[in-house]
Fold this protein.
Amino acid sequence: MSLKLRTLGKSGIKVTEIGLGLWAAGGGEWGQPGDEDSLRAIDAALDAGVNFFDTSDVYGNGHSEELLGKAMRGRRDRFVVATKIGWRGFDGQKRCTAYQNVAQLIAGVESNLERLQTDYVDLIQSHISFRDPTMEIFLEGFQKLKAAGKVRAYGMSSSDFEYIQAFTQDGQCATLQIDYSLLNRTPEGAIFDHCQRNGIGVIVRGALAMGILTGKLREDSSFGEGDFRSKWLTDPEQNITYRRDLAHVAELRGLERSDRSLAQAALQFTLAHPAVSTVIPGARNAHQVASNVGAASAPALSPEDWALIDRVVPPRGGRKIWPA
């Protein structure tokens, strides 16, 4: 199996079309972490040719970064590393990050580097999804870190179009990470058009809709202790949405074939959009990695498949899956 390389926006960095998202590896909102399984998943991704790994300082309160740092020991050159900063110490009342000046922001990124056990990251991203009073501090800090060789490129994570326009207005932002899936086609149109016009590479998260698009979840599924998805069952409003999503999945099962799973079709869908540089499905074990990477060699979506997709969730339709 050979994963294709795509360019990560104006950064010029080459990344595999399928990467590995390491949110769940940190534990936290996903319940207890399984470190050995996560490390084996990273090894399996490398063996399959994956070079792009995405994490954040808040995934498991830094544990995800620490795991990735451990995995990179002695082979840093095989990893294109993306991480994020912004939510640690966030002031919810003031809706403002903890970084009140550029020096604090740079010190925060240095903490990312320490946990990752590296002296640079390929991509640093603002994790804040809306415009807050420190946006300009992030932009100036990221530019200084790039000039110092601590980061190769910088980007943002958001689905707020006005904020995306503001953050990218100086032409230096290289990437946008955004929720996009068969159930959430809302970025199509204005956001993706903006990215293509401005050389901004799109990193797709949520392509499997927090597991919904694997086809393995049911109305009576159970989730581990601490897993945020348990609220899909216990919160009445979220349960209504969850059941609606499952109804869409039942229709989308028409995309399944003996040689292509629903999850693989979902990944192929995201990769088909020309704005997309890479998709970063999560995986907590080597088996899930193999399934995700297998999307690259599975049969391509047919015109009939696309007609089904458009019928279930029309272009630019669907809903943003938390955290969008």
